[in-house]
Amino acid sequence: MQTLVLLALVGLGAQLVDGSLGMAYGVTSTTLLLAIGTNPAMASATVHLAEIGTTLASGASHWRFGNVDWKVVARIGVPGAIGAFAGATFLSWLSTELAKPVMALLLLGLGLYVLLRFTFQGLRTDQLGKPLRRRFLTPLGLVAGFMDATGGGGWGPVGTPAILASGRLEPRKVVGSIDTSEFFVAVAASAGFLLGLGTAGINGPWALALLAGGLVAAPIAAWLVRHVPPRVLGSAVGGLIVLTNVRTLISTDLLTVEGPARTAVYLVVFAAWAAAVVHSVRAHRRLQAGERPVEEPAPAGAA
């Protein structure tokens, strides 16, 4: 029972982040399942099954708040589904011993990308309003979908920063469109895992617990996307993903670190994470200060 409550809270927190940042539901949830010893393919399959419901609820909430560009959803969602199905089939055939460090490496890479991307880069606005072309969205969807299924997350960490970096779509619509199109990815990935693993490869109660938390958070996150600074949230989430997957990697046969060396690794990761969050907070405050209008001095003799 305690595990189900914990998973529900994780699903709630992950969906709050995903719905307001456009990424990290799958990465965060899969990372936790790996940390408690779940088979990598089973972890990704369980998370993607839960995501069918959470992405549907999230998409509906974002649509209600006007955060969705349906052309982008159609152009990236279909190739994303194809990539996700291929990735799920690939992961289902990997052995558990090989899959765990492989997935941890993928998640670590995605976490570093999220951390660095949001800590050191701002959002472009000079291209805002220009259309996003199929020749950009189609390969992006294929790669992001494949990464999402094999890494237990990656649709948002790959797709959201790429579209944000183009500067052609306002941030809230990037987040809303990525979250909405992820429904197709979740359905395709789940189909691939069912084909490769069967129903025995999915933990139904865990998926329902993640789903329950996500359903509660979805409408709140769609509203928060207009108010939460993406830069700060991205640094915080990226650091959490990096820390958790470093822990997984140094506990595997591939890279075993014990004693003082392990403590030193954790201290370095914590320090870098804290510095990244502080930098993001300061950068956000500087940006806010620069956007405030300068007050004109009162005329001489004014009361």
From TrEMBL:
<feature type="transmembrane region" description="Helical">
    <location>
        <begin position="263"/>
        <end position="281"/>
    </location>
</feature>
<dbReference type="Pfam" id="PF01925">
    <property type="entry name" value="TauE"/>
</dbReference>
<keyword id="KW-1133">Transmembrane helix</keyword>
<dbReference type="GO" id="GO:0005886">
    <property type="term" value="C:plasma membrane"/>
</dbReference>
<keyword id="KW-0472">Membrane</keyword>
<protein>
    <recommendedName>
        <fullName>Probable membrane transporter protein</fullName>
    </recommendedName>
</protein>
<feature type="transmembrane region" description="Helical">
    <location>
        <begin position="232"/>
        <end position="251"/>
    </location>
</feature>
<feature type="transmembrane region" description="Helical">
    <location>
        <begin position="101"/>
        <end position="120"/>
    </location>
</feature>
<feature type="transmembrane region" description="Helical">
    <location>
        <begin position="183"/>
        <end position="200"/>
    </location>
</feature>
<dbReference type="InterPro" id="IPR002781">
    <property type="entry name" value="TM_pro_TauE-like"/>
</dbReference>
<feature type="transmembrane region" description="Helical">
    <location>
        <begin position="72"/>
        <end position="95"/>
    </location>
</feature>
<feature type="transmembrane region" description="Helical">
    <location>
        <begin position="206"/>
        <end position="225"/>
    </location>
</feature>
<keyword id="KW-0812">Transmembrane</keyword>
<keyword id="KW-1003">Cell membrane</keyword>
<dbReference type="InterPro" id="IPR051598">
    <property type="entry name" value="TSUP/Inactive_protease-like"/>
</dbReference>
<comment type="similarity">
    <text>Belongs to the 4-toluene sulfonate uptake permease (TSUP) (TC 2.A.102) family.</text>
</comment>
